[in-house]
Specification:
homodimer, Glutaconate Coenzyme A-transferase, 2 domains, 7-stranded parallel sheet, 14 helices, 25% helix, globular
């Protein structure tokens, strides 16, 4: 079957029936969400356990069950490995792993897949686990990738039933209240797990800092928590800023950032109350900085900047250039500190941030967003999951949610990465459909989605270097040797859900190269 | 049928089957909660309406439906009257009113009952509406009274389905984020309506202060809200402190407060990390003050004081005598101001505060509680709903929740009110069973529940005036003429739910007096 953007999707993916992607806002439902479990408790119950093994026993975790995790420590997380090692020691098999995201730190998952401890994964796989799964034949069902909002929706809708939610908590009290912004190793708010904690059959908080009652703010509430496990270490906060979070020094990238800020300034959205979200990439950070300077110059105060919270965003708040930050996860420790002291730096959960099945999420209030991509194509479709070699190496994050929500979504990319062109005829994988992409900004000029003539006119009037996307592509293609394209087999190794639960694309096994 | 504490309960109450009260923690369930509605929304939707009538039309509110409200403006609320007047104007009939509580300001409800606009009430009725309903024959079904936690549970369990939740919001933005601690007329956090907003088929925020996006803190989140109605006035915050919230000057009551504080000091619970909740009555406020002084003297720092937030509690926080306040509703404007500026003054919703169907609520962490009563009896049962004349004049509030949760629950009452004895053979109505009451403190001494010999020993060792409850009663009875007891008819005018949804007692129509 082909979905509405022409992607070939099998009728069934593993054991699940498929609903085909139709359009960005095709299916506004009014049926009911899944029912949560009532979990009564006696007074003054003691919830504290002293090992993960004890929690596995207490929750009755057994073969074939689903366990969930958040990724707020990003590449600094220790808890997923600790829990899986304990599961392996207990002889558990065939678990479904339901993390918000895996990072290179979780390369150990590969051994657990090989040993049969883990047989299914629903969640983002950044790096080695994704590369391993891309080889095909490793999991008993294709992996399912969802956006931040899509994952929240899936739990609320009952698409994924969690048996045991394990929640790394930088600080927790003995009754289960937990936060990520205090404690020995703060990582930022841990509200990614709030939906897991509310819907899971059993909820286990794992902390290295058991503090007196009541721990606050309560991203995780006592009423959702069955057990509190105290361990020595849960993660290394130095690694929450891993990877992409460095302000770029590349002149090409700074040029793109400059052009992005200029485009925002001339977009018609740039006025008092203006709002924006940048990603965590180097270009986005630089664009945020430039944009702040433009706001200061113009005397404009924004309503909110949305995060991942970063030092860059915190500085805008402190300079009075934005009234608030809406923060779903901290990308550095400056953001964590700001969350502690400034009530205008507001932690929000992914439901409020991005849930499709709600009466409106925060991304729907965005004026402008600047996001990254591994590839874009002439239909303005965006790929953030696979590389041009076909390997599944990245998660969706909030990409779909932000792009669908923002009034103007800009993809900020160099037209060429090394010898690899970024603008292609058709992206390897569609993460986010061209329907919700407005502008593509490259160092060779910016291209505007034909559906947004209004923007194109404004940019041209401002003297910005507006070009046809096909022209930029042709210019780049002429400079380089064609790259060897991957040859895909039939096996579907992962499905990419659109935020409403429909399938926008699948990722197939790479069998070789042209 | 008789329930476990010997109260005669009909097999059916109105149209509902009855589950009989068994014990304070009889029924720890693990089935599922009710499913919430999925409510999709398009991007950038405009939710603002300019009249309550428009909201009635937009939500499709019609005859026989259920509408809900919070009571955070207490006797200063304008919204219930405004909405009911609009419903009357629209010709609506037979509505079920599901407020958290009604106050004397809502006496207008009586006319709407007479006119058939309102035919059922589930919620507390403080004052005139309760007196009116007590006459019998006014409602099509008996009223149902629930505790704060019990009401939350009932919504989550699907016992009450809300068609339209109307939420008075001192400040809201156009997308539905709302708070009670900012705005033109702040009344304190409005999280009482959070469960209504999440479970109702339609949610309408009513505000007199439409502020730029995003309004925060978000006791009510945009994702739960269908419409935002802007009106001139929603309430008078001067009246949130109505009625009971004055520090007593009565020497009798000050003596009771003094004895209460002394009992806490010698209870064995009085040590670092100690926690307590006082009610909003004059004795409780004085006891809180005395207790603070004792804590200072002893160098003890409490973990939390729980509210209703009051100036008295805020002072303890500011003096460093408690680390935090857990605050379900503001009882005065000092508490509102403190909530704005001090992160250790934590707003919690009634689910976290008191929900029976959770893995533990905040009241379960209480060491000591001092609460009021209209009557107590020799089984230590407590009545807070009716007076000795049989009239239903008060709600339950958090009484059941706190008494069930606290390690030591003290009822602080004068043994005599005017010419009316407060200790009786059997209370007119059982609100809270003797099983969860530990100490009764009167100006004539304190009586300890026989189940708590440990406390009695400690109090005796400390030289406190411990007496038998029957002796205090006899002493008082000897001083006064017997009062004329009401004669009840068969008609059940209200049912009192225990916090798990079982029926602990019913209130019958008063037919006359002995």
């Amino acid at each position: 079957m082909k979905n509405a953007i022409g992607r070939e999707i099998p009728e069934r993916i593993g054991s699940r029936d498929v609903s085909l992607y139709q359009a960005a806002f095709a299916t506004l439902r009014c049926d009911r969400k899944a029912a949560r479990y009532q979990k009564g408790a006696p007074q003054h119950e003691d919830k504290v356990l002293h090992s993960i093994e004890a929690a596995i026993e207490a929750t009755g975790l057994s073969d074939g069950m689903t366990i969930s995790f958040h990724h707020c420590f990003r590449d600094g997380d220790f808890v997923i490995n600790q829990v899986l090692d304990a599961c392996a020691k207990k002889g558990l098999k065939d678990l479904r792993l339901f993390p918000t995201a895996l990072f290179p730190a979780h390369a150990g998952v590969i051994d657990h897949i090989k040993a049969g401890v883990v047989s299914r994964i629903e969640g983002s796989m950044n790096g080695p686990v994704g590369a391993f799964v891309s080889q095909g034949g490793q999991l008993s069902e294709p992996a399912i990738l969802r956006s931040h909002g899509g994952r929240w929706r899936a739990v609320e809708a009952g698409d994924v039933e969690i048996d045991v939610a394990f929640i790394a908590a930088p600080q927790a009290d003995a009754y289960g209240n937990a936060t990520g912004i205090h404690g020995k190793t703060p990582c930022g708010p841990i509200a990614f797990s709030a939906v897991d904690a509310q819907y899971a059959k059993h909820t286990v908080v794992i902390t290295s800092d058991l503090a007196p009652y009541p721990v606050y703010p309560m991203e995780i509430q006592q009423g959702w928590v069955d057990y509190v496990v105290v361990v020595d270490e849960i993660g290394d906060p130095q690694n929450i800023a891993s990877g992409t979070l460095v302000l770029t020094k590349s002149p090409t990238r700074l040029l793109i950032a400059r052009m992005t800020a200029d485009a925002v300034v001339h977009s018609g959205y740039f006025k008092d109350g203006f709002s924006f979200q940048g990603g965590a990439g180097g270009i986005s950070l630089a664009a945020t900085k430039y944009l702040g300077d433009e706001m200061e110059k113009a005397g404009i105060v924004g309503s909110f900047g949305m995060g991942g919270g970063t030092k860059m965003l915190v500085e805008l708040l402190q300079r009075g250039l934005i009234r608030t930050i809406l923060d779903g996860q901290a990308f550095d420790l400056d953001a964590v500190e700001s969350l502690r002291v400034d009530p205008a730096h507001i932690a929000i959960d992914p439901g409020m941030y991005a849930n499709y099945d709600s009466r409106g999420c925060a991304t729907y209030q965005l004026d402008a967003a600047f996001l990254g991509a591994t590839e874009v194509d002439l239909d303005f479709n965006v790929n953030v999951n696979t590389h041009s070699d076909g390997q599944l190496l990245h998660g969706i994050g909030g990409h779909q949610d932000v792009a669908a929500g923002a009034a103007m979504t800009m993809i900020t990319i160099p037209a060429l990465r090394g010898r690899i062109p970024v603008i292609v005829d058709a992206v390897t994988t569609v993460t986010t459909p061209g329907e919700v992409i407005d502008v593509i900004v490259t160092e060779r000029g910016l291209a505007v989605n034909p559906a947004r003539e209004d923007l194109k006119d404004r940019f041209l009037a401002a003297g910005l270097p507006v070009r046809e996307l096909a022209d930029i592509k042709a210019e780049v293609d002429a400079m380089i040797q064609p790259i060897r394209r991957p040859v895909f087999g039939d096996e579907v190794i992962a499905a990419i859900e659109w935020r409403d639960g429909s399938i926008i694309d699948v990722v197939r096994k790479v069998e070789g190269f042209e």
